[in-house]
Amino acid sequence: MKRKGFEVILMPHNANRIRNITLTSFKLSGILFSLLLAFSSLFFTNLGRIWVENLELQRLRNEKVELKERVKEFVSKTEELEKQMIRLEELEDSLKRLAGLPKDFKLMGKGGPEVALPPISAKSLDKTLDNLRKKASLQISRFYEIKKEIEKKGRYLSLIPCIWPVDGEISSFFGPRISPFTKRMAFHKGLDIVAPIGTPIKATASGKISYTGWKEYYGLNIIINHGNRYKTVYGHLSKIKVKKGGKVKRGDVIGLLGNTGRSTGPHLHYEFRVNNRCVDPLKWMSH
Ligand SMILES: [Zn+2]
Which among 17, 85, 133, 235 could disulfide-bond with 221, CB atoms 3.0 to 4.6 Å apart, if both were Cys? Predict the structure, then answer.
């Protein structure tokens, strides 16, 4: 009986023996089916890979767009920072003016040339940010220097006797006058301020109590040493409320007004001495 199918003859080069393989329709269908299966699986595997790669590509594209947007945002924020730095520099100038410092007031051992900032672009963003960081750190140092100067000036100003030691009326100014005691011309070394007995007497500047006690002319009196060779004297008191060596701040109550010593009535005799020479206290009293 004749079989349906193909006969495959295999002839190896180095052998005499010829091999016959008979491929029946069934076997052939099996082989074709297997081949089809292999190709299909290869096709679908590749299709899957392409699909995954496409997804990745889309994700990267989206990411790129997002990054571009973020870079734009960074550039605009950096520009804003630059503007703020300029405002800080303006503020620095105002502070210098207020502190009475020269505009070109130099930092102690700090500074150095400042690099001009290039126009901001995505590529120069790194450099721009770095420059801004340096500028900001320099700016902070400058503000600290100015703060130190202001504090120094504030300390110095707190030592100047500029307030009224007591609320009252001036009965005798600094300078030559006819003495109420001798009826002759004499130099009045201070300011007499009239107020009721017991009115609080205030330190006119910060300092250290260098004397408390009784003297013939001054009666019960206090001397405050403010440093800078500044001293103030408060005479004719009825009561002393501080002790020698104690520290006082401007405005602290140091005693009470009285009528002790050589005095014609209740008043405060107030002196301001610079380098042990009396000066007109009124010229320094602002409020
Ligand atoms: Zn006097």
Answer: 235
Ligand 1: distance of its center to the CA of 6 in Å? Answer: 144
pTM: 0.61
Burial of 198 (0-12, 13-18, 19+ CB in 10 A): exposed
Residues 6+ apart with CB under 8 A from 281: 161, 174, 190, 191, 204, 232, 270, 271, 272
Ligand 1: distance of its center to the CA of 203 in Å?
A: 17
Instruction: Find, among 186, 247, 241, the residue nearest to 217 by Cα.
Output: 186
- pLDDT, tens digit, 9 for 90 and up, residues 74-131: 888 888 888 888 888 888 888 888 878 877 776 554 444 455 555 667 777 788 888 8
Tell me the CA–centroid distance for residue 287 and ligand 1, in Å: 20
> From ligand 1's centre to the CA of 282, what distance in Å?
13
